[in-house]
TrEMBL record:
Transmembrane segments: none annotated. The gene is USB1. It is found in: Nucleus. It comes from the Eukaryota. It comes from Mustela putorius furo (European domestic ferret). Keywords: Hydrolase, Lyase, Nuclease, Nucleus. HAMAP family: USB1. One of its GO terms (molecular function) is poly(U)-specific exoribonuclease activity, producing 3' uridine cyclic phosphate ends. Phosphodiesterase responsible for the U6 snRNA 3' end processing. Acts as an exoribonuclease (RNase) responsible for trimming the poly(U) tract of the last nucleotides in the pre-U6 snRNA molecule, leading to the formation of mature U6 snRNA 3' end-terminated with a 2',3'-cyclic phosphate. Its main location: nucleus. This is U6 snRNA phosphodiesterase. Interacts with PLRG1, CDC5L and PRPF19.
């Protein structure tokens, strides 16, 4: 057994370095039984670790932090555990300037009913619930999605999907098959597809229901050419797992 093992990690103190150097020095001292006088003394410094070894496990780092302050006070639907990656499959909704103008009008009015409403940072139509994947499942999971979705065509979406609904159901069916392969929760039964525009912590349905929602609908209806403003090409399906993003083009 070697008295000076190869070290590939950083120590929290100098104690490990002192022990390694002392062991290497003992090998080099004459009469210490570690080497003959005719041999060259062994160097006291540690051998460099190859880059391939140093970078071998970098892909397992960078897991998302469980910090509510970074997410506006939102609470996870399941506790974060090391090695578990929250995963979500969706169709991104690419916005235009006129859509954002309409959104500003809607949010300003909605905040008179629920002041704590916050605008979404990005927009999408969900094709799955949020599920948990182990890190080593991510690549095979994404590959299974790509295989299932390889032949799908484009469609159109609005605030609430009123055209292309059957195509979205077909997409969900394929995503559900992948979820079942990995023993994960499938999507909701009889889903209603929509694009979320704003959110807040807590249940704010009561002040939004009734008059407020009717007034918001009037704003949409009176906006110039709302059908064109709210229409968008669905060109890809995305999978977000932790801080990793994967795209699957729709032909």
């Amino acid at each position: 057994m070697s008295a000076a093992p190869l070290v590939g990690y950083s120590s929290s103190g100098s104690e490990d370095e002192d022990e390694a150097e002392a062991a290497a020095g003992a090998l080099a001292r004459p009469g210490a039984g570690g080497c003959r006088r005719s041999q060259s003394p062994l160097p006291s410094q540690r051998l460099p670790v190859p880059d391939s070894v140093l970078h071998m496990f970098l892909d397992t780092e960078g897991e998302p932090e469980d910090d509510q302050e970074k997410h506006g006070g939102r609470v996870r639907t399941f506790p974060h555990e090391r090695g578990n990656w929250a995963t979500h499959v969706y169709v991104p909704y690419e916005t235009r300037e006129d859509f954002l103008d309409l959104l500003d009008m809607l949010l300003a009015h909605a905040q008179t009913c629920v002041p704590r409403l916050v605008r979404m940072e990005a927009f999408h139509v969900s094709l799955s619930q949020s599920v948990v994947l182990r890190h080593h499942w991510i690549i095979p999971f994404v590959q299974a999605l790509k295989d299932r979705l390889a032949s799908f065509q484009r469609t159109f979406v609005g605030l609430e999907v009123t055209s292309g609904h059957p195509q979205f159901l077909d997409l969900v069916s394929e995503v559900d098959r992948v979820m079942e392969e990995f023993d994960l929760t499938t999507f909701y039964q009889d889903p209603s597809f929509h694009v979320s525009l704003a959110w807040c912590v807590g249940d704010a349905r009561l002040p939004l229901e009734g008059r407020c929602l009717r007034e918001l609908q009037n704003i949409v209806d009176e906006f110039e050419d709302p059908e064109m403003v709210l229409r968008a090409h669905a060109e890809q399906v995305r999978c977000k797992s932790g801080n990793k993003f994967f795209s699957m083009p729709l032909k």
